[in-house]
Amino acid sequence: LLSEKPESIEEHLEKGEAFSMAHTFSSQVCEALRDEMRVRFQQCWREMVQDRYAEFVRDELTEKFNRSTVQLFLQDVQTFTRQYLQIGKLQL
Fold first, then answer.
1. Cβ 43 vs Cβ 51: under 8 Å
2. What domain of life is recorded for the organism (predicted)?
3. Would you say the pTM of this structure is higher than 0.70?
């Protein structure tokens, strides 16, 4: 059900629904139980897909935040280094 190619959350949810609707049960399983099992599968599938997308977004945001923090730190170091060099050039 999950592929390696990037897909939208809606596409993943549709795959889960299509899978649950296409699955056939034994004739011994009553219709009400089949419906309940399909609904529960779809609920679990939706939660799993949402959790995976949340994890992906969280990882992306963390990476971007960390990269930006390092860039700001380096800018501060350069700024303060220039200021200290200017102070060293002053004749007291």
1. no
2. Eukaryota
3. no
Least confident of 10-19, 50-59, 80-89: 80-89
The token duo for 19 is 């899978």
| Sign (positive or negative) of CA dihedral 80, 85, 88, 91 | negative
Q: Determine contact, residues 14/51, Cβ cutoff 8 Å.
A: no
Residue with tokens 């990269």: 67
The closest of 36, 52, 51, 42 to 3, measured between CA atoms, is 52
In this structure, what token pair is assigned to residue 41?
């599968």
The answer to whether 19 and 2 have CB atoms below 8 angstroms apart is: no
Token match 């002053």: residue?
90
Inter-CA distances, 78 with 24, 66, 68, 72, 89, Å? 66, 19, 15, 10, 17
pLDDT for 47-60, tens place per residue? 999 999 999 999 99
